[in-house]
Amino acid sequence: MSLPFPGPIQRMLLARPWPAAPESRALLMGIVNVTPDSFSDGGRFASLETALKQARKLEAEGADILDIGGESTRPGHAIVPADEEARRVVPVIAGLIAESPDRTISVDTYKASTAKAALAAGARIVNDVWGFQRDSAIASVTAEAGAGAVLMHNREAVDPTIDIVEDMMRFFERSLRLSDAAGIPRERIALDPGYGFGKTLEQNIDAVIAIDRIRCDFGCAVLLGLSRKSSLGTITGRAVDQRLAATLAANSFGLLTGADILRVHDIAEHRDAARVIAAFAARAQHRNET
Questions:
Q1: Structural domain of residue 207, as residue ranges?
Q2: Which candidate, 79, 61, 57, places its Cα nearest to that of 70?
Q3: Which CATH number belongs to the domain containing residue 79 in this structure?
């Protein structure tokens, strides 16, 4: 009997410094915004003490990676100078590493100087929302540190007339040429379709649907970051602090299309969802083989 289920969901194997995926589930990246103007929790974790407390909470709930960001990337955000961005994120990273050197920390930045300072403080992954295409030095900074990378698709403006998936594929080709030239192995790279960045609602959905194609065409893991995004509010009519159910539903769909990493605000709930999907996928595979 063949079941209408896509199992098994084969996770891409990421090399160190990425952590090993536990429990056959997707990796979970917990968001710590050290910013006064983040769309979701702006200002709540802007101090060192509150940022460290939030990071510890996410880790206790099951976060495999802690993603520290010092510049909001919401629409209309203010550009933060690199020295100010580093001033925000480096003490948090250093504090977390001082408590536990084995923590896996990513820095959310597209600036080479911020990335360099964060990596020196103990970060192991560079999460670049411009896919190495905004600052020409960031690929070499990442390579020299032996760090992992997240390369996200982005656009300066929304264009509802384009085929967003083809645009993403061309973008990733450019990003991967840069990472290849810097000497970063593909197994240290995750690609991010950039949900909520320069896309219409329909294009955002298309980006998630395209996850399996991204994995197959480039041989890289895929990170999905749609937690609490405004398009989920458009669909549900919910305010930003009421979008957990919508986020879980969208991320569950993303897991079924092959997402290897989820970047989220709410770790405990996503850990449960990822475990359940992994269990159902394994059982479906067993049934399909018998």
A1: 22-284
A2: 79
A3: 3.20.20.20
